[in-house]
Structures are given as C-alpha cells and as structure tokens.
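Support request, please re-run this one:
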Amino acid sequence: MTENRPHIEISKLEPGTGLDDCFMIRRKVFIDEQHVSEEEEMDGLDDRADQYLVHVDGRPAATARVRYPDGTKGKVERVAVLREFRGLGLGQKIMEKIIEDISDRHGIKEILLAAQTRVTGFYEKLGFTAYGEEFLDANIPHFWMTRPPLAK
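Re-run finished. Output below.
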C-alpha cells in the first residue's frame, strides 16, 4: 500500500508578489487565532523583507519573512502555519530553507528571531539558543533566540 504524501513547495517570493497569500495566512494565525491587533501584525515592513510561502498540493499553507537590519544579521519574523496544515513539518521545512538562504548571504554572522515562549523548543531543535529575559510582544510571551549561520 502506498501512502499519498502531499506535494510541498517552498518559494522565496519575488519582491511585491504573492503577498496576498502571506497576509491571509498571517491574518488567520496571528490576528484571528492569537488575537494580535491588525496594527501590530501589519507593521509596514513587508516591502523591506524577503517573503517565503509554502504550498501544500497547490494551496497556501505557511509563510515567514526575513529582514536584514544591518549587514551582519538575518532576522526571521512572522513564521506561521495554517491550522489545517500543522503536523506536516512545514515549520521545520520553511525554517531550514530560511537558515540556508540567510547563511548564503555574504557577511551574515547571526540569525535571530523573537520566539513565542511556547515554541522555543521547536527553535532549539533548529540550533537556536534563547537569551535575555522573557518579554511581551503583542501581549504574547517571547524570548530572543539566536544561532550562527551554517558553515559554508
């Protein structure tokens, strides 16, 4: 018996394209599920970020963005997986792609993110280490996390 596995495709979007799907996912996850205000979620920084979108069998399923606040850091933000696609490993897959892409950029010395406290273990499995004090972002507890880029 053969198991039907979903077709998973991860894309780094061209600037200004595909954002409607990214925004739809972020609205459902952050605004609807987690009650983050629209003003906080839609912060106006998307045009200065690399956007990633995951499709499962052609349907938008997960997203994330990466900004480069200076020439030495890649900052991962807005990692979100739609509820109906959770459990497929999409978070890990998109993060592995992002870590690889950031590591390919010249001069990057650190990959960082602000992780919701409840998912720090997920990021630790990807090589991130929490630092500093827990803080609130959008009324949700977070920790800063960091890791070095992949050795190339």
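The chain has a mean pLDDT of 94. Residues 19-33 form the longest helix (15 residues).
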